[in-house]
Amino acid sequence: MRFQKSERSKSQPSLNRWGIIFLYAMAGASLAIPGALLINSSLDGLLEETEAQLPVLATFLRYLVLGSVVFLALKQAKFRSRHFENVFFWPPVTTAIPMGLWILSLGIAAADSQKWEAAGGWHMENALVTLSILASGFTPILWLISKWQTKPSSKSSPDKSSEPRVSSFEDLEELPIEDLLSWLDNESPITQEDEDLFGAKDRGNRIFKALQQKRPNPESQELYKTAVIQGPFGCGKSTIVAFIEAAAKVSKPPQYIFAHVNCWGFSSKAAQEHILDKAISQLSEHVDCLSLHHLPSAYADAMNDSNSWLAAITSVLGSPASPAEVLQRFTPILRAIEAHLIIVIEDTDRNSSDFDQKQIEAMLHDFRQVERMSFVLTAGNSSQIDFPKIAEHLQFVPRLPVKITMTLMDRVRRYCMTHWKFIDPTSRQNRPERLINEDRENVEIERFSRTPSWIGILACLLDNPRILKKTMASIVESWSHLHGEVDLDELIMLSVLRHTAPASFDFLGVHRNEFGDFAPKNSSSEYMKTQREGRLAYLKERWLKVVSKTDHDAHLLGKILGELVWDSTHITGCEVHGPAQRCQSIKDNRGDVYWERISSGAVLASDIRDQEVLASIAKTKDTGDVQHMAEMMSARSDFSELLLRFQKYDRPLDSSIILQATSAALRRMRPLKYGLWNRVTRRFQLIEELIKATHASQETLSAWLFKELVDCLPCHIRDADTLFFDLGRGALDHDSLGEVRSKFVIEVKKSLSSLTSAQFVKCFPHKFPWILSYLVILDRKSYPESFKTQWSHWQWIAPHLLEGMTNCPEVITPQVICALGESGPNGDMPTWFRFDELSLKSLFGERVNEALTLLSQPLSGSQEVEGWFPIFGPLAAKEAKRLLTEGWSTTTSAE
To answer: How far apart are CA 271 and CA 264, in angstroms?
Structure first.
């Protein structure tokens, strides 16, 4: 059945409502008479003595009991003062209480007039009469209160001068940066016209005009048009709805009541009941809806019955109405209060696959048959609902214009570059001051016009307001903690990637260090090529799965990965021409540090800050004082690592400053520390690389190295050997290095010859027995003649060696054995040892037998000496004894 035509005035539903209220009052009074008599007789018995002694207290207790009963009745009726705003047209259920009290009073007076007169009759002494009068008096009072609550405030509108004014695209350039940042931080829907940048108000006004229009129908019912707002998540659908409500507030009657419903997390059936619950709850803010309390479950039952085989049978027996007829219970209420209920339904397409959107579509179709009710459905592009079937007005929210996004990014980037003080290690050639020019065109010049720049690609990815604002705000927040500690442009790119395509961001984070493995390598074996091709195929497959999970163009995502790590083009197939060379890039050997900082938004407490190193470089350039830099170089390898990195980019130090700083650092590091297999520490290796990167002349480096070698004398000869072999051979040519060695040999003689025996012993480390060998014959590898010295040139050191082997054999004897003999087989555990007899004679001369006698003595503590010495040391002692007993061989090795 359908309701009568809309030409009928609202008096009929109002009269029906008053009739229902009277029936409620009659029923309540009829049921309450026995209860009231029982309560009254009980109170008479309980308060008999109290009335005799304390009549005032007895009266108070009697009123308290009756008032409690009335209070429970009000609570059960879901009392709200605002319901009395429409008390004449749709009286709330609570109006049945004073009516019922009067009927109850008449009933009791008629049933037992004697007791009624004894209780006070129709005078104020009678508690029931008093309650009836009070309850009746509250009705007009509550009506006045409800009118005062709904009366528009006469106060002036709040001053909006302090709010961001972003009313057009052109305002972006002139808008104060503080207001722009406030606008970015506000993720809630826009409600002020001044904040509308993307045309949400115009769309909201068009939709509201559509909602005001009635749909033509043969019975001239008050059926209004419905609307759908379609667009991706974050495109501004909620903002459009907010402007629809704003337009409704200032429109002419009827009154518009909005009920907002979010279906995320519900099953399709539960979502139906949830929608109706929200609609009834919102309507209850304006009018009594107690009669609709069971409507959600009734609608669900009607939906189930209409789809079952029992429907045909129960319809014959006068079954409950159809789902659409159940919903029409809203109409009398809406007509009585002259209201238009608009239900806003969101997130129907953000549930799991078992959520049946067609059930929601059926419900919305039923809504269309209810007078004075319409809806606004917001949905994404993946919605399965057939919009033209359920709505007359379809509003599609387009993507953001690229120029707007580019302008915002450029402003945020400029703010980050100027608001925080930091030293940028990347050159201006690789970091333009602006990303767009005054005409808002891209100024990032690409080598090929078909290839868009990274700023244009990011603008395409940031295609809706919510993601744009959230991403820009996160960039500012991250940069406030990381300014100068990561590359700003890479922070922007990775932040956009993280918010728009998180799967691509994760793919880059997991596999970025593998990308370089897929460059063509001619020297690779067939096995390695096969392994590499298999891994490449796997990553390509993973990349395709990653991009399949996003709505964005895979080509654009591949371009961004290529801009960040060029070698990713082997996986994505998106060629990038000439990516910028950024000093703090995630693609370099320090990339893990920068990735950690960008992904976490903080610098680890254990990390040295890039700005600390850059500040040290700047201070050293300005003052020439290298002490702080030297202190940091000697204490932390990561300082030297960053210093080397910046030296290769746009912050080079003069070679003379580098040489001064490394000299001071080396002095602090002496004696140098050595690891397994006589390897130097990472700090020394970085100093070595820094020296090689200075591009100083051979003459300058020769002078510097000679000075450093001399500074090691006499106590740090091993450090001098390390400088010569590790640093000199990598930085100097043979002629220059030979000249340095020749001069150094002379300085060694000057330094050691004047030492006492005890001082001489301290020049040689106990556990490293090759110092003497390195001094005289280097490391036995082939060198130019200028490098070599003859043992006969070192006869001045023989007395010191003999005295040392006598007084401290555990230190000096291993030095002599390693310098004047050899063990074998080469590379394996030694099984033999022999002395170079001619070298022994050249060094010790007439005292050679004395030397052999000392060499033949067993050594204490030889197990602590490095290398194979603990094994060939005893073999050398036996060989010395053999030479003493058997004499010298007829042939000796030539020098």
So the answer is: 8
